[in-house]
Amino acid sequence: MKIALLESSGIDNIKRKICGLYVLERNIIVLSRSGFDRVILKLSEEELDFYERKIKKHIKISGFEVEADLKATVKSGYYLLPADIFIQQHYFNDTDKYFDKKSGRFIPKTTDEIFKLENADSIKKGIDLISKYIIENTGGFIAQKVNKRVSIPISKVLSKTRIHPNYLTIVNMVIGLMSSFMVFLCTYDSYSVTEKYLLMIMGGFLFQAASVLDGVDGEVAKFTLKVSKLGGWLDTLSDNSTLLLFLISSSYLYYTVFGGIVSLITIGVLFAGLAVMLGIMVSYLSKYSNSGSLVAYDREFLQKLPESDRLVQFALKMKYITKKEMFSICFFAIGLTGYIYMVIPMASFVLLAAALILTRIHFRYIGEFAKELAKSRN
């Protein structure tokens, strides 16, 4: 059993909030998500009273025990932490780096990444470290250097409200639907050329906005420690329904402009490639992953394949072209020209190539991967 003991730090410190959570509340949740089975609160009566009144109602985690006992003792092999310490979940993946073992206890090292949350400056430092970790673990140049510069500040503000990330996912889905509707309106002859141009710009802009804001729900989930598989699946549904509807409306516009069998074949190739890619990823998530996010397919499967395989190397480089953030900024840029429907032949080529490569890689390695995963679980 993995046990942590949180020691008294003073009522003023545990009352402080970071990312909308009380310091003590956040630390308990971090421990629960880091594989701990039991947390002992060795706090003062005033601190325990605050826990009972303000925090306990937010700690609803199945199979996780929180025991409030000022006189509790543990023999050895436990983690001893101040109740107001700043820790992150990934610290427990590298105990040698972040903890010292003394007398059978794991004690956090004093570093730039581990410190007490005892004033406004330390709270800000903690938030900045969480933001840095989110950005560093986000794939793609555009996502890191462009989208996160907008989404992170928004997420910091929203995290203070205790809003559930799933609500933000739904809002983002609505914005994505509006972008598709704007493009669809361009198919009506009742609009002038100028009006159609403005609708294309608005459609491309809203699609790009949805791509930027797509990170907000996930970031808020990480700031507030509300990451869940349901949230991952909802985010996946939002992302792909937004992309699918945008491609449908753009395809319809493309067909109304060009018509003919070639247009239909181009559109068919696009959706066939998209269906194959999504089918492979969703199949992996449902069978082998605890995540509902498509990002997990890349992180848990593709990135663990042999680097000596040139096709794997090519796929890892090509994945950035097929990401939504790349699509969205291209759609917006092309929309500014007034020919947003030209994304269809370009996207069909990219998705067909990606689908063929991904299919080859998946069926070449998934059997071996499944066997290794089964061994590790046994």
Secondary structure blueprint with pairings:
Elements: E1 3-7, H1 11-14, E2 17-18, E3 21-22, H2 23-33, E4 38-42, H3 45-55, E5 65-68, E6 78-82, E7 85-86, H4 95-98, E8 99-102, E9 105-108, E10 115-116, H5 120-136, H6 141-159, H7 165-185, H8 193-223, H9 229-258, H10 260-288, H11 295-300, H12 310-318, H13 324-335, H14 343-377
Parallel strand pairs: 1-4, 1-6, 4-5, 6-9
Antiparallel strand pairs: 2-3, 7-10, 8-9
Structure write-up:
The chain has 378 residues and is α/β, with parallel strands linked by helices. It has two domains: 3-120, Spore Coat Polysaccharide Biosynthesis Protein SpsA, Chain A; 140-377, CDP-alcohol phosphotransferase transmembrane (TM) domain (Four Helix Bundle (Hemerythrin (Met), subunit A)), CATH 1.20.120.1760. The protein has helices at residues 11-14, 23-33, 45-55, 95-98, 120-136, 141-159, 165-185, 193-223, 229-258, 260-288, 295-300, 310-318, 324-335, 343-377, and strands at 3-7, 17-18, 21-22, 38-42, 65-68, 78-82, 85-86, 99-102, 105-108, 115-116. The strands form three sheets. It has a six-stranded mixed sheet. A two-stranded antiparallel ribbon has the order 2-3. Helix 5 packs antiparallel against helix 6 and helix 7 runs antiparallel to helix 8 (193-223). The chain is elongated. The model has no long low-confidence stretch (mean pLDDT 88).
